[in-house]
Fold this protein.
Amino acid sequence: MALKTVDDLHASIVGKCPKCSGAGYQIARDEHSGQFNDCSCMTTFNEYKKYLLAGIPERFWAFNHDHFRSDFYEKNSITIGSYYLWTDELGHEALRGSGILLWSGDHGTAKSAMASLAAKQGVENGLRVRWFSGTALYDLLLRDSSFEESQVLKEVDKSELIIIDEVDKIFIPVGERKLVRARLSEFFNRIYEQLVIVVATSNCPIDDLQDYPSDIVDRMYEWDALELKGVDYRRHQSRLQKLIKTNAKKD
Ligand SMILES: [Zn+2]
């Protein structure tokens, strides 16, 4: 079940903590001192609260780079290494206005998970972070009543790091929805003008986004593209099938 509010989050982490029974603190070992210490559940709660408010999907909250498959890591070690160097620097003035596109034509390359590492590092480094899903962006812009009152654009204005997960999945209708197209252009324009840092993921290179308005594509070309290589599951599978067949013959 997805967590929706900070209260829900508190109830699920602190409320269910077996160490402090929901109090959020523990009496110090020397109980005569009358000192109270924050329980460890509060550390987790405070961390996850920031992720929740930044819109980072819950499935990535506890994710860290140790969770990457070793073969994926080996195949992309140079790319991942330079990406980590970059994320460590988040918050430095020099990175303002920069962007990274994590793209891959292969499946299972953990693009979103990689983006979540930047988002969490940004939070840790004190940046105001906001996560957008490409598939949801069009609907969010459509729901906004007016340009001036656009919640999405307000979010952009107060963010320092924006994640656009699956930027290739933003639905851009060619015809009637001129309003949303204009807002989407403004969305990318604001990011550019306010020197917001971007981490975007895509299932294809920017060259393949032919249907996107040229002003948006131009902005995307400003980002550094990092290609991630997937693990060849198909070859792995055929090898596995051969092995199964050989073993079947033996039986
Ligand atoms: Zn606790």
